[in-house]
Amino acid sequence: MNKTLLPIRLVFVALCAVAGGLVCLTSPQWDHLQPVAITVGLLLGILVVLTDVMLKGFSLRGLSAISFGLAIGLLVAYMVHVSPLMQEGDPQVLFLVRLGLFLVIPYLCVVIALRGKDEFNLVIPYVRFVPHEVDVPLVVVDTSVLIDGRIAKVCEAGFLSAALVIPRFVLDELHAVANSSDPHKQARGRRGIETLNLLRKIKHIDIRTPESDIAKKQDVDAKLVFLAQSMRAKLLTTDFNLAKMAEFHGVQWLNLNVLSKALRPELVLGEWLEVELIKAGKDEGQAVGYLEDGSMVVVNNARTLVGQQVHVEISSVLPSAGGKMIFARLVSEGE
User: Which of 32, 81, 84, 195 is least surrounded by Cβ atoms within 10 Å, i.e. has the fewest?
Assistant: First the structure.
């Protein structure tokens, strides 16, 4: 975007300088002022460009809030202006009072509208302008989901049809983690950025990134909950504490860990499984493998088969903190 804006800004400044010179051509008496007029036009163009640069990051929501606040302020000032209170008195005093009203009241209304711009529901609350249904379901995504990475596969499989709202402050936090000096945090942050890139490549996924920030003093969790509340969206997270905070504030939440547990198949005694044996078990002759959901499978009399894919029959299932611990026996091909 900056590479595109730079030539536009240069052309605009040049046109302002040319316009300043053309003004002097309207009157012969101004011919000697042409260098001054060109300089003034050039400086005005630079001033406008600097104002544009200073407004970088100013969102459509902020502009709409200012417009709304200004309109309300002018309406209130006009109503006071035409009221009987302003009909009699010293004309000079009345003029000064009216001038003050038209300066102070719009200013106060604009400030109030800007402070509450994130609750301002009369404007389009998204940055990306594509045709959307008004009642499309929204899901606010937090940093932990992007770092986790499973969201990309869930979306690619088509199980999540809602629009994903990834706030700007979540992206900033993700980049901060990726640039951390801690190698572990850096790896997690880079995995989150890779997940984000994978999501953007999925054509049927609608990703929205609100540019406006929420109260700077709030932490990221509080911002996420507030944003989900104001957008009437669900909150997607893998953070149990954040999920409970959302629940306390009446925000519906989705947790990928809960989804993962719900998708684990119910295993019954006598069922056959195919598992790759990864390492030797604690007891003599045992070998250990893992299912896709993380459940540990302990196979008796299979230590010599470590590194191979084998068929086993479930003999017992025990619950554990990491999922389920399954004990099984080898099944020969003839059975």
Answer: 84
Which structure tokens are listed for 269? Answer: 């005694």
Q: What is the largest CA-CA distance in the chain?
A: 111
Determine which helix (DSSP H) or strand (DSSP E) holds 330, and give its type and residue range.
Answer: strand 323-330
- pTM comes to 0.48
Determine the Cα–Cα distance for residues 252 and 52; give it in Å rounded to an integer.
39
Residues of the chain with pLDDT under 70: 1-4, 56-61, 116-135, 211-218, 264-265, 293, 320-323, 333-335
Q: What pLDDT was estimated at residue 133?
A: 43
Helix (H) or strand (E) holding 48: helix 34-54
For the chain, what is the total number of helices (H) and then of strands (E)? 11, 10
What distance in Å separates the CA atoms of residue 113 and residue 119, rounded to the nearest whole number?
9
Mention every residue, 6+ apart, whose C-beta is less than 8 A from residue 91.
none
SS3 assignment, position 190? helix
The dihedral through the CA atoms of 313, 315, 318, 320 has a sign that is: negative
Rounded to whole angstroms, the Cα distance separating 104 from 97 reads 10
HSE value, Cβ hemisphere, 13 Å, CA-based, for 265: 9
| CATH 2.40.50, the chain: domain bounds | 272-330
Sign of the C-alpha dihedral, residues 231, 236, 242, 243?
positive
At 255 the three-state DSSP class reads: strand
Give the domain 138-262 fold: Rossmann fold (3.40.50)
Pick the CATH number of 272-330 from 3.90.1720, 2.40.50, 2.60.40, 3.30.530: 2.40.50
